[in-house]
Amino acid sequence: MVSESQVLDALRVVTDPDLGRDIVSLGFVKDIRVSDGTVGFTIELTTPACPERDRMRTLAREAVAALPGVGGVELMNAHKLPKPTVEGTVPAEQYGIKIISMGFFLREDDAIIWRGPMLHKTVQHFLGNVLWGDLDYLIVDLPPGTGDVQLTLCQAIPLTGAAVVSTPQDVALKVAQKAIAMFTQLNTPVLGIIENMASYVCPHCGARDDVFGAGGARRAADRLGVPFLGEIPLATEIRTSSDAGRPIVLDPTSPFAQAYLGVAEKLAAQVSIRNMQRELTPLVQITF
Asked: What is the CATH class of 136-280?
């Protein structure tokens, strides 16, 4: 009878072209089952929209079917996508992180052309009708600028704060400054500024190129009196890993992972500071 190790060895010929590694070393193969000549296993890709999904499934099935003694192959592709229930919508989940997005409910080529009231209803639904359960953090990724979504969110629930992301060049920073002004007017604390696509280092010669300038977000943070949370570099590895649906932070040896983790640590620290300040602020009691 075929063994689990033989199945894993056979599957090592199947590689993810974006990540350049086989699906076994990437940890995509789960729940191997061998019974009466039938081999079953799950391929848990990093994203249900992976363009290479069908090809990898076919190659995996063929590789295992070619093993001596294998009479059948049962292959599943596991993804925890959003699921509507009577109680509410169960969010998608991957790597222990829950997520909801309109992208799950539309075709890839569909565009959302909505006015304010529709956006308002969607925000309300995602906040109140999604079964989030107990969370450490709830992060809402907002579009740039000062639109209806930002206004609705700030008015719908009490927010710990907002983190503003900007590239270093002046045009982007002006948009970020308007967002900071809006959050200030709406009494939403600004937790800090993050500089994205801060610099590019050539992987061949090591030369640094500040494609969009350098240090603009740090200078803006100093001028506006808000914390600077760190820099995320411009790198091909980040792009390929993201396109494959695999967070770069899963590779602890990557310097780009360290950049993300450094920003996350500083952001978490600001959240803790805000929460502590809220606890220490005495309640104002009004008596008549």
From this structure: alpha beta
The overall longest dimension of the chain from CA atoms, in Å, is 86
Contact (Cβ atoms closer than 8 angstroms) between residue 186 and residue 154: yes
Q: What is the architecture, at CATH level 2, of domain 4-77?
A: 2-Layer Sandwich (3.30)
Cα pseudo-dihedral 176, 178, 179, 185, rounded to 10 = 150
Nearest C-alpha neighbor of 155 from the set 198, 186, 201: 186
Reported confidence tier of residue 74, pLDDT bands at 50, 70, 90: confident
Q: How far is CA 73 from the centre of its chain?
A: 33
CB atoms closer than 10 angstroms to residue 212 = 20
Distance CA 17, CA 56 (A): 10
User: 213 with 169: CB under 8 angstroms?
Assistant: yes
Listed residue (63, 62, 23, 61) closest to 45, CA to CA = 23
What is d(CA 56, CA 51) in angstroms, rounded to the nearest whole number?
10
CA-to-CA dists, residue 80 to 33, 85, 91, 128, 130, angstroms? 21, 14, 8, 20, 14
User: 158-176 burial string, b = 16+ CB within 10 Å, else e?
Assistant: ebbbbbbbbbbbeebbeeb
In this predicted model, what pLDDT tens digit does every residue of 163-199 receive, in sequence order? 999 999 988 889 889 999 999 988 899 999 999 999 8
Give the burial class of 285: count Cβ atoms within 10 A of its Cβ; 0-12 exposed, 13-18 middle, 19 or more buried. Answer: exposed
Q: Is the pLDDT of residue 46 over 70?
A: no
Torsion, Cα 144 149 154 155, to 10 degrees, reads 160
List the chain domain ranges. Answer: 4-77, 80-135, 136-280
Q: How confident is the model at residue 81 (pLDDT cuts 50, 70, 90)?
A: confident
Q: Using CA atoms, how far apart are residues 206 and 134, in angstroms rounded to an integer?
A: 44
Closest CA to 259 of 227, 233, 287, 228: 233
